[in-house]
Design a protein that fits this description.
Strand content: 15-25%
Strand order of the largest sheet: 15-16-14-13-19-20-21
CATH topology of one domain: Nucleotidyltransferase, domain 5
Number of helices: 16
CATH class of one domain: Alpha Beta
CATH superfamily of one domain: ATPase, nucleotide binding domain
Shape: globular
Radius of gyration: 21 Å
Largest sheet: 7 strands, mixed
Helix content: 25-40%
Oligomer: single chain
């Protein structure tokens, strides 16, 4: 039996999961890391804390499975995507905190870009001009950090998304690589050439020598350091951004297949095959994945900034629940939302609105409203935001999504998934392995080293765990959507 290890480095925690050839989970370990919030709109992570967490979960999962590093045929890496780290190539020391994808501090840099340049960026990358993506984060570091600009002047600067940071530190030769899915989220990679684009680099003033080499999502990039946490020389053979990895984990290899992942944010992707579809509905045109020498697959994506993190907000900022899983019991204690709607636009609205001026609102409050109604409105907000992007996706592609394939932590919440089926008026299906992000990274790595022969062999592994069917009428669902749309309007023009 051969095993594949997958590092899943997310926004709030790091996991290491070990899979067997049947795609079953052998062992898993998870560790949260701190969310650093220096001021409004700023979100940071400590790159060294992430490395420590990665080492810890690898050791724990291997120990739980009764395995050692050399038992793994390969490892894959999946990661929170646009979050950006700068480090010194000579010392390997990070040059400050990582700037997280949710961070909006670089909006002023984007405001300087001319309309002509903005159109050029969107055409080449498929992405809107937003601080969500990595390029303006890099520009901000160069302008505001003396250590970053000094490293650039000494030609010792390395920029990377979290995948690059992990590979640099895990590999025996400090390899600086990324894959096409992560590179496609920077505003610096040309969708057609799959290379860094000189004109885009010039617009953001990013030096080419600071960036990683762009590779496919499934190939042997190098090997782990035998003196490191694995204690063995193991192929690093898969790198896939988290949402693209979930698309692989849900085995959405063909054009028209889609998935929705519920994590800190919420991300729906539909595979558009080898065709680049340029969105007119506020969706993102992005790379889906590239498996070895095969042609790249593209996707349309609907991104929602705050879903699971809204539940964390109830826990950490409001203190109305002790742990995230308590939200289901609290929300179940009332039969409906009591007229309360919550739009968690903490850092603006993402797809399909793309309104950086929006901020969060709770509306419809009366004296009868309780924390249970707010909890229920929070779960409904997750579902309504998903509906917004799914409808845009269907209009864009002309494909009616008959069954919504879902994965991620919130899918363990039975009430939320039933709400999703009701609000969307579509059946919702969850696979047995709900953490498909890590599974997708394992698939990418396993294909590269021959654990699985090809995609058709993987197709036989998908199994359904749960299915939810709508339990309310379309008229009731539409009435709720009408109120949700009114709540969205209240979030606009705050900034």
């Amino acid at each position: 039996m051969s095993y594949i290890g997958a590092i899943d480095q997310g926004t709030t925690s790091t996991r290491f999961m070990i899979f067997d050839q049947a795609g079953s989970v052998i062992a898993a370990a998870q560790k949260e890391h701190n969310q650093i919030l220096p001021q409004a709109g700023w979100v940071e992570h400590d790159p060294l804390e992430i490395l420590r967490a990665t080492d810890a979960v690898i050791k724990e999962a291997l120990s739980t499975a009764g395995l050692v590093g050399r038992d793994l045929a390969a490892i894959g890496i999946t990661n929170q995507r646009e979050t950006t780290v700068a480090w010194n190539a000579m010392t390997g020391v990070p040059l400050g905190s990582a700037i997280v994808w949710q961070d909006t501090r670089s909006q002023s840099i984007l405001d300087e870009i001319t309309p002509d340049s903005a159109r050029q960026i969107t055409h080449k990358t498929g992405l809107p001009l937003a601080p969500y993506f990595s390029a303006s984060k890099m520009s901000w570091m160069l302008r505001n950090s003396a250590t970053v600009s000094s490293a650039r002047d000494q030609q010792e600067l390395r920029f990377g998304t979290i995948d690059s940071w992990l590979v640099w530190n895990l590999s025996e030769d400090n390899i600086h690589v990324t894959d096409v899915s992560n590179a496609s989220r920077t505003l610096l990679m040309n969708l057609q050439t799959l290379n860094w684009d000189e004109e885009l680099l010039a617009i953001f003033d990013i030096p080419l020598d600071s960036l990683a080499s762009i590779k496919s999502s499934s190939e042997i990039y190098g090997y782990t350091d035998p003196n490191g946490v694995f204690g063995a020389r193991i192929p690093i053979a898969g790198i896939v951004g988290d949402q693209h990895a979930a698309l692989l984990g849900q085995l959405c290899f063909e054009k028209g297949e889609s998935k929705t992942t519920y994590g800190t944010g919420n991300f729906a992707l539909i595979n558009t095959g080898t065709e680049i579809i340029r969105s007119k509905k506020g969706l993102l045109t992005t790379l889906a994945f590239k498996l070895g020498d095969e042609p790249a697959n593209y996707a349309l994506e609907g991104s929602v900034a705050v879903t699971g993190s809204a539940v964390q907000w109830l826990r950490d900022q409001l203190g109305i629940i002790e742990k995230s899983s308590d939200v289901e019991t609290l929300a179940k204690s009332v039969p409906d939302n009591g007229g309360v709607y919550f739009v968690p636009a903490f850092s603006g609205l993402f797809a399909p609105y793309w309104r950086g001026d929006a901020r969060g609102v709770i509306v419809g409050l009366t004296r009868a409203a309780t924390k249970a109604h707010i909890a229920r409105a929070t779960l409904e907000a997750i579902c309504y935001q998903t509906l917004d992007v799914i409808r845009a996706m269907e209009e864009e592609t002309g494909v009616r999504i008959k069954v919504l394939r879902v994965d991620g932590g919130i899918t363990q919440n039975q009430l939320c998934m039933q709400m999703q089926a009701d609000i969307l008026q579509t059946e919702v299906s969850r696979p047995i392995v709900a953490e498909t992000t890590a599974l997708g990274a394992a698939y990418a790595a396993g294909l590269a080293v021959g654990i699985w022969r090809d995609k058709s062999e993987l197709k036989t592994q998908w199994r359904e765990s749960n299915r939810w069917k709508p339990e309310i009428t379309a008229e009731v669902a539409e009435a709720g959507l009408h109120n949700w749309s009114k709540a969205i309007e209240r979030t606009l023009n705050w900034i």
